[in-house]
Amino acid sequence: MRIGIIGAGWAGAAAAWQLHKDGHEAIVFEAAPQIGGRARNYHSKLLGQTLDNGQHILLGAYTSTLAIMDELGLSPDKHFYRFDLDIYSADQRFRFKTAPLPAPFHLLGPLVNAKGLAFKDRFALGKLYRYLRTRQWQVPAGQTVAMLLQHTQQPEVLIQKLWHPLCLAALNTPIDAACAQLFAHVLRDSLGGARAATQMLIPLRPMGSLWAEQALQHAQIHTGSPVRTIETTANGYQINGHHLDGVIVATNSPSCHRLLQNLDKDNQNKAFIDSISHFCFNPIATLYLLPQHAWENPHPMLMLEEDLHGLQAGQWVFNHAALPDSDLGQVIAVTISYANRLQGHSKEAITAAIRQQLQTQSVFPLPPIVASELITEKRATFVARPHLTRPSTHTPWPRLMLAGDWVQNPYPAVLEGAVQSGLAAACAFH
Fold this sequence. Notes:
It holds the Pfam family Amino_oxidase. Residues 11-428 form the Amine oxidase domain. The protein is an alpha+beta fold and 430 residues long. 31% of the residues lie in helices and 22% in strands. It contains 14 helices and 20 strands. The strands form six sheets. It has a five-stranded parallel β-sheet, covered by helices on one side. A five-stranded antiparallel β-sheet has the order 16-17-18-15-19, with helices on one face. The relative contact order is 0.20.
Protein backbone atom coordinates (compact mmCIF):
# COMPACT_ATOMS: atom_id res chain seq x y z
CA MET A 1 0.00 0.00 0.00
CA ARG A 2 0.96 3.64 -0.52
CA ILE A 3 0.65 5.39 2.83
CA GLY A 4 0.92 9.14 3.25
CA ILE A 5 2.51 10.44 6.46
CA ILE A 6 1.87 14.07 7.39
CA GLY A 7 4.75 15.19 9.60
CA ALA A 8 8.41 14.12 9.71
CA GLY A 9 8.98 14.30 13.45
CA TRP A 10 9.84 11.28 15.56
CA ALA A 11 6.33 9.82 15.26
CA GLY A 12 6.34 10.19 11.48
CA ALA A 13 9.88 8.81 11.15
CA ALA A 14 9.04 5.77 13.29
CA ALA A 15 5.90 5.16 11.22
CA ALA A 16 7.85 5.40 7.95
CA TRP A 17 10.43 2.89 9.17
CA GLN A 18 7.77 0.41 10.31
CA LEU A 19 5.86 0.78 7.03
CA HIS A 20 9.04 0.05 5.08
CA LYS A 21 9.67 -3.08 7.16
CA ASP A 22 6.11 -4.22 6.49
CA GLY A 23 6.50 -3.78 2.73
CA HIS A 24 4.50 -0.57 2.30
CA GLU A 25 5.50 2.60 0.46
CA ALA A 26 5.65 5.75 2.60
CA ILE A 27 5.21 9.26 1.20
CA VAL A 28 6.07 11.88 3.83
CA PHE A 29 4.88 15.50 3.79
CA GLU A 30 6.65 17.94 6.12
CA ALA A 31 5.72 21.62 6.29
CA ALA A 32 9.11 22.68 7.68
CA PRO A 33 12.25 22.77 5.54
CA GLN A 34 13.83 20.04 7.69
CA ILE A 35 12.79 16.87 9.46
CA GLY A 36 12.83 16.22 13.18
CA GLY A 37 9.74 17.99 14.51
CA ARG A 38 10.21 18.72 18.21
CA ALA A 39 13.76 17.29 18.10
CA ARG A 40 15.17 19.05 15.07
CA ASN A 41 18.51 20.61 14.22
CA TYR A 42 19.08 24.35 14.56
CA HIS A 43 22.11 26.13 13.18
CA SER A 44 23.15 28.91 15.54
CA LYS A 45 24.98 31.76 13.84
CA LEU A 46 25.73 33.21 17.27
CA LEU A 47 27.55 30.09 18.43
CA GLY A 48 28.68 28.97 14.97
CA GLN A 49 27.39 25.45 15.58
CA THR A 50 24.52 23.13 14.80
CA LEU A 51 22.48 22.57 17.95
CA ASP A 52 19.31 20.78 18.89
CA ASN A 53 16.29 23.03 19.20
CA GLY A 54 16.57 22.14 22.90
CA GLN A 55 18.80 20.07 25.15
CA HIS A 56 17.24 16.62 25.22
CA ILE A 57 17.87 13.68 27.51
CA LEU A 58 16.54 10.16 27.16
CA LEU A 59 16.04 7.30 29.61
CA GLY A 60 17.25 3.77 29.18
CA ALA A 61 13.54 2.87 29.43
CA TYR A 62 13.01 4.33 25.95
CA THR A 63 13.02 0.82 24.50
CA SER A 64 11.27 1.53 21.18
CA THR A 65 13.57 4.41 20.27
CA LEU A 66 16.71 2.45 21.13
CA ALA A 67 15.42 -0.64 19.30
CA ILE A 68 14.96 1.35 16.07
CA MET A 69 18.48 2.72 16.41
CA ASP A 70 19.80 -0.82 16.78
CA GLU A 71 17.86 -1.92 13.69
CA LEU A 72 19.40 0.97 11.75
CA GLY A 73 22.90 0.00 12.87
CA LEU A 74 23.24 3.09 15.05
CA SER A 75 24.69 1.89 18.32
CA PRO A 76 23.13 3.95 21.12
CA ASP A 77 26.39 3.67 23.08
CA LYS A 78 28.19 5.56 20.28
CA HIS A 79 25.59 8.32 20.05
CA PHE A 80 24.70 8.84 23.71
CA TYR A 81 26.60 9.27 26.93
CA ARG A 82 25.02 6.71 29.24
CA PHE A 83 25.26 6.93 33.02
CA ASP A 84 23.42 5.66 36.08
CA LEU A 85 20.72 7.99 37.38
CA ASP A 86 22.57 10.77 39.18
CA ILE A 87 20.74 13.84 40.42
CA TYR A 88 23.50 16.02 41.83
CA SER A 89 22.93 19.64 42.80
CA ALA A 90 25.30 22.27 41.47
CA ASP A 91 26.13 23.35 45.02
CA GLN A 92 27.03 19.69 45.84
CA ARG A 93 24.66 19.63 48.85
CA PHE A 94 22.17 17.11 47.46
CA ARG A 95 22.69 13.86 45.59
CA PHE A 96 20.39 11.02 44.57
CA LYS A 97 22.33 8.35 42.70
CA THR A 98 21.48 4.75 41.92
CA ALA A 99 24.10 2.08 42.52
CA PRO A 100 25.88 0.19 39.69
CA LEU A 101 24.14 -3.05 40.70
CA PRO A 102 21.49 -5.29 39.09
CA ALA A 103 17.86 -4.41 39.82
CA PRO A 104 16.42 -4.06 42.37
CA PHE A 105 19.67 -3.62 44.28
CA HIS A 106 20.56 -0.51 42.23
CA LEU A 107 17.89 1.29 44.29
CA LEU A 108 19.98 0.79 47.40
CA GLY A 109 22.20 3.61 46.15
CA PRO A 110 19.98 6.52 47.24
CA LEU A 111 18.90 4.71 50.40
CA VAL A 112 22.49 4.16 51.55
CA ASN A 113 24.50 6.98 50.00
CA ALA A 114 22.08 9.85 49.37
CA LYS A 115 23.48 13.26 50.24
CA GLY A 116 21.42 15.96 51.94
CA LEU A 117 18.74 13.56 53.19
CA ALA A 118 18.09 12.46 56.76
CA PHE A 119 17.35 8.79 57.40
CA LYS A 120 13.61 9.49 57.72
CA ASP A 121 13.67 11.15 54.29
CA ARG A 122 15.30 8.09 52.76
CA PHE A 123 12.64 5.90 54.38
CA ALA A 124 9.99 8.10 52.74
CA LEU A 125 11.55 7.30 49.34
CA GLY A 126 10.90 3.63 49.95
CA LYS A 127 7.36 4.37 51.10
CA LEU A 128 6.40 5.95 47.77
CA TYR A 129 8.06 3.13 45.82
CA ARG A 130 6.31 0.41 47.85
CA TYR A 131 2.94 2.20 47.57
CA LEU A 132 3.13 2.35 43.77
CA ARG A 133 4.51 -1.15 43.38
CA THR A 134 1.84 -2.65 45.66
CA ARG A 135 -0.84 -0.93 43.59
CA GLN A 136 0.82 -2.16 40.37
CA TRP A 137 1.68 1.44 39.53
CA GLN A 138 -1.95 2.51 39.38
CA VAL A 139 -3.19 5.57 41.30
CA PRO A 140 -6.72 6.89 41.94
CA ALA A 141 -8.30 8.59 38.96
CA GLY A 142 -7.89 12.36 38.90
CA GLN A 143 -4.98 12.42 41.33
CA THR A 144 -2.25 15.01 40.84
CA VAL A 145 1.40 14.39 41.59
CA ALA A 146 1.13 16.73 44.59
CA MET A 147 -1.75 14.65 45.95
CA LEU A 148 0.26 11.45 45.46
CA LEU A 149 3.24 12.92 47.30
CA GLN A 150 1.02 14.11 50.14
CA HIS A 151 -0.69 10.72 50.43
CA THR A 152 2.67 8.93 50.71
CA GLN A 153 3.94 11.54 53.20
CA GLN A 154 6.89 12.73 51.17
CA PRO A 155 8.90 15.33 53.14
CA GLU A 156 9.38 18.84 51.78
CA VAL A 157 13.08 18.29 51.07
CA LEU A 158 12.26 15.36 48.76
CA ILE A 159 9.50 17.29 47.02
CA GLN A 160 11.76 20.29 46.37
CA LYS A 161 14.97 18.44 45.54
CA LEU A 162 13.67 15.35 43.74
CA TRP A 163 10.00 14.96 42.88
CA HIS A 164 9.32 18.52 41.70
CA PRO A 165 12.37 18.58 39.34
CA LEU A 166 11.64 15.08 38.03
CA CYS A 167 7.98 15.90 37.41
CA LEU A 168 8.88 19.04 35.47
CA ALA A 169 11.52 17.18 33.48
CA ALA A 170 9.16 14.33 32.57
CA LEU A 171 5.76 16.05 32.27
CA ASN A 172 6.67 19.74 31.85
CA THR A 173 3.81 20.40 34.26
CA PRO A 174 4.02 21.52 37.93
CA ILE A 175 3.24 18.90 40.57
CA ASP A 176 -0.01 20.58 41.67
CA ALA A 177 -1.42 20.23 38.13
CA ALA A 178 0.41 17.16 36.77
CA CYS A 179 -1.29 13.80 36.29
CA ALA A 180 -0.08 11.32 38.91
CA GLN A 181 -0.89 8.34 36.69
CA LEU A 182 1.41 9.52 33.90
CA PHE A 183 4.11 10.23 36.47
CA ALA A 184 3.63 6.74 37.90
CA HIS A 185 4.10 5.25 34.43
CA VAL A 186 7.42 7.08 34.08
CA LEU A 187 8.55 5.84 37.50
CA ARG A 188 7.37 2.30 36.72
CA ASP A 189 9.40 2.06 33.52
CA SER A 190 12.50 3.69 35.02
CA LEU A 191 12.93 3.18 38.77
CA GLY A 192 10.65 0.16 38.65
CA GLY A 193 12.58 -1.50 35.83
CA ALA A 194 16.03 -2.93 35.25
CA ARG A 195 19.17 -0.96 36.03
CA ALA A 196 19.54 -0.04 32.33
CA ALA A 197 16.01 1.43 32.30
CA THR A 198 16.98 3.86 35.06
CA GLN A 199 20.09 5.07 33.26
CA MET A 200 20.16 8.45 31.55
CA LEU A 201 21.34 9.11 28.00
CA ILE A 202 22.65 12.50 26.85
CA PRO A 203 22.93 12.86 23.04
CA LEU A 204 26.44 13.36 21.69
CA ARG A 205 25.09 14.28 18.24
CA PRO A 206 22.29 16.64 17.17
CA MET A 207 19.04 14.75 17.60
CA GLY A 208 17.60 15.88 14.26
CA SER A 209 20.21 13.82 12.41
CA LEU A 210 20.58 11.09 15.01
CA TRP A 211 18.27 8.40 13.63
CA ALA A 212 15.24 10.04 12.00
CA GLU A 213 17.11 10.66 8.72
CA GLN A 214 18.04 6.99 8.48
CA ALA A 215 14.53 5.87 9.44
CA LEU A 216 13.18 7.95 6.55
CA GLN A 217 15.77 6.81 4.01
CA HIS A 218 13.34 4.52 2.14
CA ALA A 219 10.46 7.01 2.16
CA GLN A 220 9.60 9.59 -0.45
CA ILE A 221 10.05 12.85 1.48
CA HIS A 222 8.57 16.23 0.60
CA THR A 223 9.93 18.91 2.96
CA GLY A 224 8.59 22.45 2.80
CA SER A 225 5.31 20.87 1.73
CA PRO A 226 2.47 21.85 4.07
CA VAL A 227 -0.76 19.87 3.81
CA ARG A 228 -3.89 22.02 3.83
CA THR A 229 -6.49 19.35 3.14
CA ILE A 230 -6.91 15.59 2.99
CA GLU A 231 -9.25 14.64 0.16
CA THR A 232 -11.18 11.38 0.07
CA THR A 233 -11.31 9.38 -3.18
CA ALA A 234 -13.23 6.30 -4.27
CA ASN A 235 -10.58 3.94 -2.87
CA GLY A 236 -8.42 6.05 -0.60
CA TYR A 237 -7.15 9.58 -0.15
CA GLN A 238 -5.36 12.33 -2.02
CA ILE A 239 -2.78 14.69 -0.51
CA ASN A 240 -1.04 17.39 -2.53
CA GLY A 241 -1.79 15.50 -5.76
CA HIS A 242 -0.60 12.11 -4.47
CA HIS A 243 -3.06 9.21 -4.52
CA LEU A 244 -2.82 7.14 -1.34
CA ASP A 245 -4.31 3.98 0.13
CA GLY A 246 -4.06 5.31 3.68
CA VAL A 247 -2.87 8.24 5.77
CA ILE A 248 -1.07 8.73 9.08
CA VAL A 249 -1.47 12.22 10.55
CA ALA A 250 1.70 12.70 12.62
CA THR A 251 1.48 16.45 13.22
CA ASN A 252 0.92 18.39 16.43
CA SER A 253 -2.64 18.35 17.73
CA PRO A 254 -3.71 21.84 16.48
CA SER A 255 -2.65 20.97 12.91
CA CYS A 256 -4.38 17.60 13.13
CA HIS A 257 -7.54 19.27 14.41
CA ARG A 258 -7.63 21.64 11.42
CA LEU A 259 -7.08 18.82 8.93
CA LEU A 260 -9.82 16.63 10.36
CA GLN A 261 -12.25 19.55 10.61
CA ASN A 262 -11.77 20.18 6.89
CA LEU A 263 -12.20 16.47 6.19
CA ASP A 264 -15.43 16.19 8.21
CA LYS A 265 -17.55 18.17 5.82
CA ASP A 266 -20.82 16.62 7.04
CA ASN A 267 -19.97 17.20 10.71
CA GLN A 268 -20.55 13.50 11.45
CA ASN A 269 -17.43 12.99 13.58
CA LYS A 270 -17.56 16.13 15.70
CA ALA A 271 -17.12 14.27 19.00
CA PHE A 272 -13.89 12.63 17.86
CA ILE A 273 -12.53 15.89 16.44
CA ASP A 274 -13.44 17.74 19.62
CA SER A 275 -11.25 15.28 21.56
CA ILE A 276 -8.27 16.77 19.73
CA SER A 277 -9.16 20.41 20.36
CA HIS A 278 -8.76 20.72 24.14
CA PHE A 279 -4.98 20.37 24.51
CA CYS A 280 -3.12 23.22 26.20
CA PHE A 281 0.64 23.61 25.95
CA ASN A 282 3.63 24.61 28.04
CA PRO A 283 6.90 25.96 26.65
CA ILE A 284 10.44 24.67 27.25
CA ALA A 285 13.47 26.91 26.85
CA THR A 286 17.15 26.07 26.48
CA LEU A 287 19.96 28.56 26.98
CA TYR A 288 23.15 27.59 25.17
CA LEU A 289 26.34 29.26 26.39
CA LEU A 290 29.70 29.24 24.60
CA PRO A 291 32.49 29.73 27.17
CA GLN A 292 35.88 31.22 26.41
CA HIS A 293 37.41 27.92 27.51
CA ALA A 294 36.10 24.57 28.70
CA TRP A 295 34.21 24.68 31.98
CA GLU A 296 36.27 22.83 34.58
CA ASN A 297 33.28 20.92 35.85
CA PRO A 298 33.62 17.12 35.57
CA HIS A 299 29.87 16.44 35.78
CA PRO A 300 27.90 16.18 32.50
CA MET A 301 24.66 17.16 34.25
CA LEU A 302 23.91 19.05 37.45
CA MET A 303 20.66 20.20 39.03
CA LEU A 304 20.02 23.88 39.69
CA GLU A 305 17.72 25.38 42.30
CA GLU A 306 15.23 27.49 40.39
CA ASP A 307 13.52 30.68 41.42
CA LEU A 308 9.85 29.79 40.99
CA HIS A 309 8.88 33.41 40.40
CA GLY A 310 11.94 35.08 38.88
CA LEU A 311 14.21 34.67 35.87
CA GLN A 312 16.79 32.46 37.58
CA ALA A 313 14.69 29.62 36.25
CA GLY A 314 17.30 27.09 35.14
CA GLN A 315 16.66 23.54 36.37
CA TRP A 316 19.44 21.48 34.81
CA VAL A 317 22.84 22.42 33.39
CA PHE A 318 24.71 20.22 30.92
CA ASN A 319 28.45 20.58 30.42
CA HIS A 320 29.36 19.16 27.01
CA ALA A 321 33.05 19.54 27.79
CA ALA A 322 32.56 16.71 30.29
CA LEU A 323 30.96 14.49 27.62
CA PRO A 324 33.42 12.37 25.64
CA ASP A 325 33.28 13.11 21.90
CA SER A 326 30.28 15.47 22.07
CA ASP A 327 29.68 17.33 18.81
CA LEU A 328 28.95 20.47 20.86
CA GLY A 329 32.50 20.66 22.18
CA GLN A 330 32.59 22.91 25.23
CA VAL A 331 29.06 24.31 24.98
CA ILE A 332 27.05 24.64 28.20
CA ALA A 333 23.28 24.10 28.03
CA VAL A 334 20.72 25.13 30.66
CA THR A 335 17.17 23.82 30.40
CA ILE A 336 14.02 25.54 31.68
CA SER A 337 10.90 23.37 31.69
CA TYR A 338 7.53 25.04 32.26
CA ALA A 339 9.13 28.22 30.93
CA ASN A 340 5.92 30.28 31.10
CA ARG A 341 7.48 32.78 33.51
CA LEU A 342 10.01 33.83 30.83
CA GLN A 343 7.33 35.23 28.55
CA GLY A 344 7.55 38.98 28.12
CA HIS A 345 11.21 39.18 29.14
CA SER A 346 14.08 39.90 26.79
CA LYS A 347 16.67 37.29 25.86
CA GLU A 348 19.32 39.55 27.37
CA ALA A 349 17.56 39.68 30.76
CA ILE A 350 16.97 35.92 30.81
CA THR A 351 20.55 35.15 29.83
CA ALA A 352 21.98 37.49 32.46
CA ALA A 353 19.78 36.01 35.19
CA ILE A 354 20.69 32.40 34.40
CA ARG A 355 24.38 33.20 34.14
CA GLN A 356 24.11 34.75 37.58
CA GLN A 357 22.29 31.63 38.78
CA LEU A 358 25.15 29.43 37.56
CA GLN A 359 27.80 31.64 39.11
CA THR A 360 25.99 31.71 42.44
CA GLN A 361 25.07 28.05 42.75
CA SER A 362 27.88 26.08 41.16
CA VAL A 363 30.98 25.19 43.13
CA PHE A 364 32.82 25.21 39.80
CA PRO A 365 33.60 28.78 38.62
CA LEU A 366 31.87 29.61 35.36
CA PRO A 367 34.28 30.69 32.58
CA PRO A 368 33.74 33.96 30.70
CA ILE A 369 30.92 33.56 28.17
CA VAL A 370 31.62 34.76 24.64
CA ALA A 371 28.27 33.94 22.98
CA SER A 372 24.81 32.66 23.87
CA GLU A 373 21.64 31.42 22.18
CA LEU A 374 18.21 31.13 23.81
CA ILE A 375 15.77 28.78 22.07
CA THR A 376 12.17 28.53 23.22
CA GLU A 377 9.68 25.93 22.02
CA LYS A 378 6.36 27.62 22.74
CA ARG A 379 4.31 24.45 22.25
CA ALA A 380 6.90 22.00 23.51
CA THR A 381 4.48 19.65 25.30
CA PHE A 382 0.84 19.37 26.19
CA VAL A 383 -0.18 20.16 29.76
CA ALA A 384 -0.30 16.71 31.38
CA ARG A 385 -3.23 17.25 33.72
CA PRO A 386 -5.47 14.53 35.23
CA HIS A 387 -8.57 13.43 33.30
CA LEU A 388 -6.96 14.51 30.03
CA THR A 389 -8.67 12.65 27.19
CA ARG A 390 -6.27 11.67 24.41
CA PRO A 391 -7.54 10.33 21.07
CA SER A 392 -6.81 6.82 19.92
CA THR A 393 -4.63 5.85 16.98
CA HIS A 394 -7.69 4.81 14.97
CA THR A 395 -10.09 7.44 13.63
CA PRO A 396 -13.66 7.17 12.29
CA TRP A 397 -12.21 7.27 8.76
CA PRO A 398 -10.99 4.00 7.22
CA ARG A 399 -7.20 3.64 6.96
CA LEU A 400 -6.62 7.08 8.50
CA MET A 401 -4.51 6.91 11.67
CA LEU A 402 -3.10 9.39 14.17
CA ALA A 403 0.42 9.47 15.63
CA GLY A 404 2.19 11.80 18.02
CA ASP A 405 3.16 12.11 21.66
CA TRP A 406 -0.34 13.51 22.33
CA VAL A 407 -2.10 10.38 20.99
CA GLN A 408 -3.15 7.80 23.57
CA ASN A 409 -0.11 6.03 25.04
CA PRO A 410 1.18 5.39 28.58
CA TYR A 411 3.55 8.36 28.63
CA PRO A 412 3.37 12.14 28.85
CA ALA A 413 4.67 14.23 25.94
CA VAL A 414 8.06 12.56 25.62
CA LEU A 415 9.86 11.40 22.50
CA GLU A 416 9.43 7.72 23.35
CA GLY A 417 5.67 8.23 23.36
CA ALA A 418 5.88 9.77 19.88
CA VAL A 419 7.92 6.82 18.61
CA GLN A 420 5.56 4.24 20.10
CA SER A 421 2.54 5.98 18.59
CA GLY A 422 4.20 6.09 15.16
CA LEU A 423 4.89 2.37 15.32
CA ALA A 424 1.32 1.64 16.41
CA ALA A 425 -0.13 3.72 13.56
CA ALA A 426 2.00 1.91 10.99
CA CYS A 427 1.16 -1.51 12.43
CA ALA A 428 -2.55 -0.71 12.00
CA PHE A 429 -2.05 -1.28 8.26
CA HIS A 430 -1.12 -4.96 8.73
